Each structure stands twice: as structure tokens, then as C-alpha cells.
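User: Before I run my own analysis I want an independent prediction to cross-check against. Here's the chain; please return only the C-alpha cells and, at the end, one sentence I can use as a sanity check.
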Amino acid sequence: FSAQKNVGAIYGWLSVSPMLGSFFLSTKVFSYVYDSAMAKQLLPSSSVADQSGILHQTTDDVFCTGGACFANAFWAGALCSLVSAAITAWLAKRCTHLYDYLLARVVA
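Assistant: C-alpha cells:
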């Protein structure tokens, strides 16, 4: 796999991958985490609010407000960010010799 021969394909994937990642995180991961937090707080019967005001339920709609509903989704996003930062640091360290080589060619 030569980078010079596949510049277009590499650039295309670099352009598309953030969109695919955000779509996957928002539709699969965050919605699952939010729905599971909401199911834990689900009140029996049709109530307007519980004592802390976290869950509201009417006859048709169920929605969750407050930090308790979004805390796990936040931690899932933070974990994904930390994993991607670790992978980026690993790749940067792995490619240090290439950066040194290219810098020597540009400076010389």
C-alpha cells in the first residue's frame, strides 16, 4: 500500500471518517446510553415528575432531563475521545522517523 499512489483514497477516507464516526456515536452509542438511563428512571404509572424532577412522563411522551440522563453519554464520549487521542499519539510516535526524514529533506 503506497501512500503516493493512493492519495485520493486516503484523502477521501480522511474526509468521510469524521462524519461516519459522529453518525455512529450519535445514533447507536449515545442513544443507547440515554435510553438505558431513561429506562432506569422510568416511573410506574403516568406521572408528571418525580421528586428530583428528572423524569417526566405523560400518556404519550417520555423524556428525561437533567444531568443524570446525560452523564453516562458524556462518559461514553469522553472515553471515545481518550481512545482516539491514545491512538493518535501512538501513530505519531510510530511515524517519528518519517517526520525526521521529511524535515531533513525540506531543510536541506
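Sanity check: The beta strands are 55-57, 62-64.
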